[in-house]
Amino acid sequence: MLTDIAIAQACEKQHILGVAKTAGIDEKYLEQYGSYKAKVDFSLLKDRAERPDGKLILVTAITPTPAGEGKTTTTIGLADGLKKIGKNVMVALREPSLGPVFGIKGGAAGGGYAQVVPMEDINLHFTGDFHAIGAANNLLAAMLDNHIQQGNLLRIDPRRITWKRAVDMNDRALRNIVIGLGGKAHGVPREDGFDITVASEIMAILCLASGIADLKERLARIIVGYSYDDKPVTAGDLKAQGAMAALLKDALKPNLVQTLEHTPAFVHGGPFANIAHGCNSVMATRMALKTGDYVVTEAGFGADLGAEKFLDIKCRMAGLKPSAVVIVATVRALKMHGGKAKTELKNEDLAALKAGLPNLLQHVENITKVYGLPAVVAINRFPDDTEAELKLVEDECKALGVNVVLSEVWAKGGEGGKALAEEVVRLCEEPSEFRFSYEDGLSLREKIEAISKKIYHADGVDFLAPAVKELEKLESLGYGRMPVCMAKTQYSFSDDPLKLGAPKNFRVTVRQVRISAGAGFVVALTGDIMTMPGLPKKPAAENIDVDENGVITGLF
């Protein structure tokens, strides 16, 4: 069996000019990065302003397990399937972070015969967007510390600095550090730390900004800490937004690539969905909608995280409305949610499957009942799935009024996604009344409770003292109307990664709250979630190599 990278390297890629032509994008809008990648200039959006938007299709999934779900693979295969049935389609995905690539999760370019290429570039440095985000983040940190060193006219309290440095790598040793050691000439000593770049507010800002002017306004609003007078200090106060925007001006432009079947794809931005808002950039989504009649996009991790943030944050801010939602599941993963060991998933077990099905059904009900959107369940089929198991999933979903379609895109590419494509086209024509899970006018506390009760199905929320104090402060500063970005484990509806399936009789604990004023949302940290992951005992980096001809191996 060929590996993902072997399949991708064997693909005869189309020149990026040909991909752009398929998408109807004139060469004048392109900034080429070699033969197979290009950035697309913002002016395309202005020139296409009068064109009606295409249909937006969101791909999400059940709660992830080590058995795998194949959400990105399904997203790409669905787009190729739509192309196979004659539709004008675009893909809009996030860029992978180097942390998971070298860690344990892997990349984000799909798999098998449903991938975006060049997968090596996409999974590694790509067009340098993440480096620019890290540089802008760390420029602000440097200017902040320099301001304190040079007299501290803003009277910033070093004990109340909230801005962290960033690096796109899993590096637990950088979570908590002390800087400014070595004497007066080397800065003011204080505690500091690093977030992974994909958790940085700069990443969220880049993905939510509508253009350069909006980017600068958002950057200026970033709160870096508080003064001795308890007043928020912003990047605008430090006069940092102009230089930061200069570093980000090219990173803000969406990246155009292709699938293995030459379907045009925007791959741009990459916030994590467990600790950030988990969606590709608004700029890329809007470009795709002004280019394709159908746009297939993805939100990270399970529907309780990525889809909730896509709908409650991104759609709210950008005025987007999905026409249909695809919820990806595997029989294998559902059996794990039902208590089956990973080593025993090949064996038929209807009891374990039935015990795990509530996880899928709860995601389905959230999408259809809470958000009011039409949905289809895509079963990412594995060879050892039995007909009895597949029928059980289909029967349970149909009881909720949702169809189930087998997806075989990993093995067959677009051909294996045609049935799913047909169902999605049908759903896109269904009337729907999209709504959010909470309204703007609720307090921050009420918004957190609404997500926890409606989406996670928790009994309630326990707010620790530091979170209560920060919520009160943020409300008093006028940030109460902002949406909430929940930072929560991806492995459970609850904030306990060990509670699989669809747990009941639990409460969510909010231990800390952070303001992302530039991004425009408030982050609530639950359970033990961290904004800087660590590498596993055996990192994926140990298997990655490159030969004397520059050919990369071991990248999945």
Tell me briefly what this model is.
The chain is of the alpha/beta class. It is built from 19 helices and 25 strands.
Task: Identify the notable features of this structure and list them briefly.
19 helices; 20% strand; alpha/beta; 12-stranded mixed sheet; 556 residues; globular; 4-stranded mixed sheet; 35% helix
Protein described:
The protein is of the alpha/beta class and 556 residues long. Strands 1, 2, 3, 4, 5, 6, 14, 15, 16, 17, 18 and 19 form a 12-stranded mixed β-sheet that branches. The longest helix is centred in the first third of the chain and has 21 residues. The radius of gyration is 23 Å and the shape is globular. The two termini are 13 Å apart.
Distance between the ends: 13 Å
Low-confidence stretches: none
Number of strands: 25
Count of alpha/pi helices:
19
Structural shape: globular
How much strand content do the residues show?
Answer: 15-25%
Major beta sheet summary: 12 strands, mixed
SS-derived structural category: alpha/beta
Radius of gyration: 23 Å
- Mean pLDDT comes to 95
Helix content: 25-40%
What is the fold's blueprint, element by element?
Blueprint (H helix, E strand, L loop, with lengths): L3 H7 L5 H8 L6 E3 L5 E3 L2 H5 L7 E7 L9 H14 L4 E5 L4 H5 L7 E2 L2 E4 L1 H5 L5 H21 L6 E6 L3 E3 L9 E3 L10 E3 L1 E3 L4 H8 L3 H10 L1 E5 L4 E3 L6 H8 L6 E5 L4 E4 L14 H8 L4 E5 L4 H16 L5 E6 L1 H7 L12 H21 L4 E6 L6 H12 L4 E5 L1 H4 L5 H11 L15 H11 L5 E4 L1 H12 L7 E4 L19 E10 L4 E6 L18 E2 L5 E2 L3
Parallel strand pairs: 3-16, 3-17, 4-15, 4-16, 8-11, 17-18, 18-19, 20-22, 21-23
Antiparallel strand pairs: 1-2, 2-14, 5-6, 6-14, 7-12, 9-10, 12-13, 14-15, 22-23, 24-25
Helix pairs in contact: 4-17, 7-8, 7-10, 9-10, 13-14, 14-15
